[in-house]
User: Fold this.
Amino acid sequence: MKKVDVVLGLQWGDEGKGKVVDVLTPNYTVVARFQGGPNAGHSLHFGDKSFVLRTVPSGIFRDGSVNIIGNGVVVDPVSLTEELRNIAEQGIPVKEKLFISKKAHIILPTHRMLDAASEAAKGKSKIGSTLKGIGPTYMDKTGRNGLRFGDVLAPNFVDRYNKLKSKHEEMLSQYAGFEYDVTEYEKTWMEGIEYLKGFRFIDSEHEVNEMIKQDVAILAEGAQGSLLDVDFGTYPFVTSSNTVCAGVCTGLGVAPTKIGDVYGIFKAYCTRVGSGPFPTELFDEVGEELRRIGHEFGAVTGRPRRCGWLDLVALKYAVMVDGVTQLIMMKSDVMNDFETIKVATAYKIGGEVVDHFPYEVTDDLEPVYTEFPGWKCDICKVRRYEDFPQEFKNYVEFIEAETGVPVKIISVGPDREETIVR
Ligand code: GDP
Ligand code: IMO
Ligand code: MG
Assistant:
């Protein structure tokens, strides 16, 4: 039996999961997504090529890999079709390499409209959703109304689609002044469904467990980050799925005893896109620098990402909930020229110092920082840990000591090659 290894984002998403999965895939035969949907944007860079994957697992470009969209994922036929056609243009035999769980739920055009209407109605307190229909689709899943890929081949699929659409139209009529027209988009959606019928819809829990028995190496690829988890994130400013490690169990049908290594990915600083609390957020020129040097603009929406210092209180919380066994630090190179680097090691809440992530991040919360002298040199060309400047090693080793987990991989640039494995 070979256990399933897991790659997870430990912050608010965009930690660099796509790059890490791409780097790790030579060690795995199968890459499986277990939650989220096209709200994700996972960037890959190799040679002169760049891709942003939303629903397709980041193993797709590696020869011989098998890629699974698990039952816990919500799939938009339009977005997935577009993505697959782009990948197929690169000569990748997508129909042989990608399988879709019959139990994965389908995002309807009206789910997207419901997302937009709900956000508009929230006004100032909006979540900052990517508006891909994620929340409404998961609501239909738990509300037991959803459509799944296994339903696509049923003779009454279109009737069932129309029934759910009518229900949504009824709900949308409650939002005064919200106007929409899905007629054109619906045609593209139906074309997407037709295109996807050319793919294998599988009972992924059976196939995955059979692979585990046969010692096949499987990597589960998370989307979003632990602080966007619907249970453990900064609720209600979260996504609608379980992004934490437990999501692998429900999103792929893998028992907890069959989870192996948990790779926790974090940026050497922090970013967040959309609304919600962010204790170490910077509103000054340092935040601007992080955004500019780190190209911190959303891969899906192009929105500027909010930037701030690394938050060890939040990171330790994610490490705890996820059972992280190895840490992977990304984008260290972004701080090459920084004189001083700060890390939050505790919070002051109402004058009291606390070292745990609280129920709610309130306005009177103030981070307590530990400062480090910057390394002030270009680390992008470094390929062995020994060759990093001492200031950089001090930073890494402090994080290891605080979290109690080794930093096994360090990324110093977006390319596959810009990776140091210790
Ligand atoms: P994901 O959603 O977790 O896969 O991350 P995104 O792709 O949304 O955002 C990460 C961004 O950082 C992408 O543009 C990557 O190409 C880029 N990136 C990843 N690792 C590094 C790194 O070590 N250094 C720099 N400078 N950029 C990186
Ligand atoms: P990857 O996988 C960063 C954020 C949105 C919003 C909240 C809810 O690329 O790391 P939703 O569309 O799920 O209703 O949005 O979650 N969000 C992400 N932020 N990276 C992501 O994915 C995200 N997916 C959702 O900005 O604040
Ligand atoms: Mg992303």
Observations:
- The first helix runs from residue 17 to 24.
- The longest strand covers residues 340-349.
